[in-house]
Amino acid sequence: MPLDPETFDALIDTVRRFVTERLRPLEAAVEEADALPADVLREMREMGLFGLSIAEEHGGLGLTMSEEARVAIEFGRTTPAFRSAFGTNVGIGSQGLVMAGSDEQKAHWLPRIASGEIVTSFALTEPDVGSDSGSVKTKAVKDGDVYRLTGTKRFITNADKADLFTVMARTGEEAGGRGVSAFLVPRDLPGLSIGEPEKKMGQKGAKVADVIFDDVPVPAANMLGAEGEGFKIAMRVLDRGRLHIAAVCIGVAERLIADSVAYATDRKQFGKPIAEHQLIQAMIADSKTEALAARALVLETAAAKDAGKDVVMESAAAKYFASEMVGRVADRAVQIFGGAGYIADYGIERLYRDVRLFRIYEGTSQIQQLIIARETIKRGG
Is the pLDDT assigned to residue 283 strictly greater than 90? Predict the structure, then answer.
């Protein structure tokens, strides 16, 4: 059930002030240190941000998809690493458990995930498996009352700090997604190790790393759903995750547009503010129009998901359009700022690098195109 309007408005106001007053002043420091301050993470836990999408009965806020999207938009207005800190708990790291977990599994894990005591991570991608996610090679072999996991997962968000991984592993000989199962794998099991965090183009402060499984004994009771259902669970998780990422893209775009307008209003060339030059106005207009279109698509799709409708195609379209849109907006922002846009002190070049990842993770733009086309053909237009 959605929150009553007054309570939700208060939540949005609190998040907006937190982003503006607390997080934005820390952006340069996070970029420099490639780490988030511990006190900020503590404040996020106290605000309930790690449990946005988890039901109230398990200690979360129980937001609807529409409400979660609105919060994600607000967090898009600062460096993405802040949102990423709790993003896996809200999305791909917890939603498999929310959607397919048993009552016992939910009672054991969800309250601690919602509080932020436990950080979750989603382990699907492998060195040779990315877009073709049904071809995972990590194996899970039944051995009495455990499954022994062997393999390597790559580019796993929050792996460096995660306490619990949702892992996709092959349990059968059947090729493709039908042979894949999902497991809840605690970090402290013997044989599980984490690689060094990767050096990335952007999104400093948000870490990705390899997760290595060397004959890791995972209790059979930790399987999510039935054997062979892992791929279906992963795809359902990604549907929600794509909407969340699309909403974040909108927030970043709105931040970039506001920064561009402020700069263009102040910066003078040829005797007047550059905001009065028509070619600058054209870039602002294009950016604003695309951001408004993305917002409308995301919020409409989120409402449809809350109503129980099939939004596989719409979620893919929202993620595709919003992630491509924010890349264009960031490019125009650099252009509007001119030389200043290329200099680190203004923060525009940082966001330009940060947003590039949105077109890759949770399914590349090309994968979204395939999903959109497939679903459109299936629906007959």
Answer: yes
